[in-house]
């Protein structure tokens, strides 16, 4: 399959924003590249995995398209579950099957525990000093440990149960009061205002305005983290990023988020200062939120071995903020969309939730854990719509032998969790939503079953699985218990639009607008 002109243009974002001069420049460049387009296979015989034809200079960048998880999955049906791509100058291996990932992680977890340097993460995450993008090493180990210990451990997650309860009750109240005028609800817009992580991690109450503002910035943050900067991959085309103004826009988003996080930190500093002045502030960690704890550790590396500066703290807060709001909300939205698309599944889940709650008298997180059909529906959604479909890229720190190929150190690894979830070799009727496939099955998403890896795998697996699943399960059970959900009359009989919009987390493109009828026990 020869690379096409239109395919090339797909990889270059925001072309519509370009002037005619840029188009002409690009056209000339493209023609030059086409003149030099070579052979059907660009893989030199170095024992590397199969590779599609490529352009000189751009390599396979143009193959990513606007939804890379889908483009790469299509390519994998031709070139196999392990493919070699050259993204500009960046050697990249893409894995698209459970068995390929299992072989990779079982034997090479440590060699694959680092992240590649990313110019986007450097701009947005204070030089990649957060947990998710920092390279493997002592700093990563310590900051991950701090987050797990003080925010994400099972004990801490349980202790935030009352916050989830409060926030979800508020959401239900908002939907009810909206329903007094109109039973049609923009559920997506309601969900983005669920500020559970804000309250849990930052001990902070935000207005609807505050959470909406933060959410809009986080939406851009996600979109940028999912982008491929041309100049990062092909340094001599760095002018292209400059000409589109993308870096300038990224910096603006970073500044917006910075001032939001500064306000959180400043409030903590003020409370601490006032407390100390009044002799009421105790230094013990128990009961303090993550920001307090990091401020206490700031500049003091005796206990932890790392010294946290203000920017490090902000980077870590941003990680938690993004994962705890945007990614969690994405999962709830996809599950509701699938249940609406599959009314029989909706009925089974809702019958289960209501029967459990009606018997117990009140919904609790312990009860949610026991709701087998609801939990099966959540797993099925993670399979079909992993919120972070390409996980977060890895980079090999030493040479690896994998499936008969030799992959040198310094190679980027993309693991396509979306392709794995849609793989007919692992899943029967893979494109259908069938929650019951998980009933009585031990398959879960905690990194032991390589066919279902929405939270990743190995030592860089998501640190917030407990927080995420407690929030998602409780929010969904409450929504399904309190309301009957359907499409609004004008949309009935039409297929629900499930288009996606790209980012590091992949959202539903269109808001989920539903009719919510309050449920009452007769
Ligand atoms: C549905 C919700 C979520 C999904 C699908 C998700 C998914 C992921 C994925 C795919 C990774 C990369 C794993 C890898 O490289 O193998 C990751 C990393 C991470 N996640 Fe989550 N996540 C979710 C929620 C959360 C929450 C609520 C938090 C914390 C508040 C969190 C904190 C983290 C952190 C700190 C990392 C970086 C781990 C590391 O690099 O060591 N996540 N997550």
From TrEMBL:
Keyword Flavoprotein attached: no
Coiled coil (residue ranges): none
SUPFAM superfamilies: Cytochrome P450 (SSF48264)
Transmembrane segments annotated in the record for this chain: 20-37, 461-483
Alphabetized UniProt keyword annotations: Heme, Iron, Membrane, Metal-binding, Monooxygenase, Oxidoreductase, Transmembrane, Transmembrane helix
Gene Ontology molecular function: any one: monooxygenase activity
Binding locations of heme: 462
Keyword Transmembrane: yes
Gene3D superfamilies with a match to the protein in the record: Cytochrome P450
Cofactor names: heme
Family: Belongs to the cytochrome P450 family.
Protein name, as recorded: Cytochrome P450
Lineage: Eukaryota, Viridiplantae, Streptophyta, Embryophyta, Tracheophyta
